[in-house]
Structures are given as C-alpha cells and as structure tokens.
Amino acid sequence: MPQGLPNRIRDAFTFQAVIAGMTLIVCVMTAAFIGREVVARQWLQAEADAWWQAKATNAAYPPPFGVNLQGYFMPAGGGDLEAIIGGDRAVANLLWFKGAPEGFSPRRDTEGVLLVDRREAGTLYLAASLSLFDRILALAAGGLALLMMATMFVVSWMTYRTSKRMVLPIHRLADEVGRWNPSDNDDGVPAALTTQDDAGREAQALTSALHGLGDRIGAFVRREREFTRDASHELRTPLTVIRVASDMIAADPATPPHQQRPLLRIRRATQDMEAVIDALLVLARERGVMPQSEVFEVVDVVEEELDKVRQLFEGKQLSLTFDIQGRPRLDAPPRVLGVMLGHLLRNAWAFTETGRVDVIVDRDRIIVRDTGIGMTPDVLKRVYDPFYRADPFSQSGKGIGLSIVRRLGTRFGWPVALDSTPDEGTTVTIVLGDRLV
C-alpha cells in the first residue's frame, strides 16, 4: 500500500531534523576543536606573561606547575634548571623540550600544547595537558547528541501530529475516492463523500466539487439509461410490424420475383435492428438486474447465429466454416452471447469480399477469423469507439457493433480481443472466462 501523505510529511521533517542535527554536531565539534587550540594558546601565553612579570620582581619565583600545566625555566647563561619538581623527571622533560621549536607546538608525550618562550633572561617551557578538556568536550558532544535526538523526536512527533491534522481530511478524501469502483455502482458515481467540521477549506472545496461532479455524472448516466431503455422498447413495436409485414409479402404467391430481393434486404435490416435493440436493452438494465440466465451449450448458440447469416454469406459467395474444438457450457443469458456473435459475424461479412470466414469454438473461447480488408493500427485504436467507421462512405454498418460487443463482454466477464492485419484479415476472440460450467 502506498505511503500516506501524513507519513511522508513526517518522514520529510524527520530527515530534515536528522540532517540539521548531524550538521549541528559537526559544526560544534569543529568549533570546539578549533577553540581548544585557541584557548590553550591564550592560556599558556597568559601564564607565561604573568610568570615573567613575577620573575622580574622575584628572581626566585618558580615556574608554574600543576596537574594540567608544568613549567620549566632554563637561564640564558646556562645555570641550574628551575622547576618545582626535580630530579630525573625534570631533566628528562627538559631534554625532550629542548628539541621543540620556539613558540607553540603540540606535545609529543600526551595530548596538549607546548609553549617555548625565549627571552634575555632565559627560556621558559610551559607544557599544558588538554586531556581534561578533551573529556569535557566528549561529554559535551555526547550530551549535545542526546539533546539533538530528543529534540528531533519531539519535533518529528509534533510535526507529524500537526501535519496529520492538516492533511488528514485530504488523505481521507483520497481513500474514499480510491475505493470507488465504477463497476460496483449502478450509476458509476462514488458514494457520498464526508468531511469533518474541522476540515480545511481545501478539503471542503474538493468534497463539494466531487459531490457536484458525482451528481452530474449520475444524472447523465440515468438519462442515458432511461433513454436507451425507452427508445428500445418503443422501437420494438414498429420493427415487429415491419418484420411480420415483410414475411407476409414474401410468402404471398402474388408477389413478383423481382420484389423478393428488396424484401430480403428489409428482413435482414429488421433482424440487424432487433439484434441492436436486444443488446441495448441488456446494457440499459441496472447492474443488479441481469437478464434471465440458464445453462446452455455454446455450440448451440453459435449454430443458431450461423443459420441466421448463412444466406448473407451465400449471396456474397463467401465460405463460412464452423470448427468445433471444444464444447463449453455457460450459465448466462444465451441471448447476450448470440447478440455478440451476431455482430461479429455481420462485421466479418461486411468487410470480407472474397475468401472465407472461420468460426472456431474452443473449450474457453470463440474465435471469428476472416480474410477481409483488415485494419491498420490507427483504426484498431478507435475501433471500439461508438459510431466510428474506418470507411465513413461505406454503407455497411453504423459503427456501433464492436462497441456493443465490447460493452457486453465487459458486462458479463467475457473480454474481447482483436487482432488485425491490413489486406489479410481480422481475428476476434471472445474469452469465456466467467460463467463457465
């Protein structure tokens, strides 16, 4: 599941706090180490100046000596070493210190700074130990790190709570819209969206806009469905009259032979219109109201549709073959499958001038393959658009057959796949994934 907006904001602020904290620690540690050297040198220089002043008034004044500072003085004329400590320890330190350059230099025996101050009276050696300062610095750095972590936690938590309150209405609104599945809703409209009273102006504006959009979509879908249903019902009566009248005229012995061909065209057009009306009636029904289902043999429905169009193929001298490679059974409305197959067969007949049309029934699919004009990739992209025709000047079809086939297939879980090559033919496959018995 993708990360929510509040968590992303929290992570962003946490990352910023970590970077800021690490930068602060690095800066403080760098400043502390630089300040360590500066303070140590100023300290040693102040101690040296104070000792030289005391030495000027009291020749016996000893060099400073303590836990963190040791002083040694060597007279210019080469006299005795002056230091509070004596013996071998003083001599050993003096031998090491004599090799140090004048001024400040790091101690080699421990962490610290050495000052060699040469004047007319002699040379003063001041060695400062900074181990205590380093321990204090380490404790300060550790305390700063702990304080930084605690601050980072508090800031992150407060930021998370604040950001959550700010974006939670948008987050909740996105979840509700994300759960919307148009196929689960009769009108294709999301359920009523809710916002809390304390939601921000942005969330309330989005909710209001989505409510308005949902209402408009719902009204549009209802109007389209009601019009389709009413128009289909109203067209059934005149179509029935036309079909019965044409059958009676065709069956009348007094009808001249030259009128049989126009009557045949009328009957075919009537059958096509009835198939379209049947499909529209199925699509106009509410999703929760499905046509009457029954268990049937797919082969029987295919044979029935082949019988309806066989005269069309014979009049065009096209070969129509039927290959049974499986006998699937469906628990579904057989008329729906018949309408889909009828549209595919009439399309194959309309766009195939020479050659053949093969209908294959496999264990989980129906394949209609023709040797017609085929379709280019550009046509394939729009072939399912209602009222789209590759040849707008053609008198065959109204451009809604494949659109109806695809919508019916989506409605009943029978996806339609189409493969076509220009000047070679088209293959349409109905995959009977759902409702197989």
Automatic annotation (TrEMBL):
InterPro entries, A to Z: HATPase_C_sf, HATPase_dom, His_kinase_dom, HisK_dim/P_dom, HisK_dim/P_sf, Sig_transdc_His_kin-like_C, TCS_sensor_his_kinase
Pfam family of the protein (one): HATPase_c
Primary localization class, coarse: membrane
Catalysed reaction, written as an equation: ATP + protein L-histidine = ADP + protein N-phospho-L-histidine
Domain Histidine kinase, residue spans: 230-436
Keywords linked to the UniProt accession: Kinase, Membrane, Phosphoprotein, Transferase, Transmembrane, Transmembrane helix
Protein's UniProt keywords contain Lipid biosynthesis: no
Location of the protein in the cell: Membrane
Domain of life: Bacteria
Molecular function, one GO term: kinase activity
Catalytic activity, EC: 2.7.13.3
Segments crossing the lipid bilayer: 12-34, 136-160
Enzyme class name: transferase
Protein name: histidine kinase
Protein source organism: Luteimonas flava
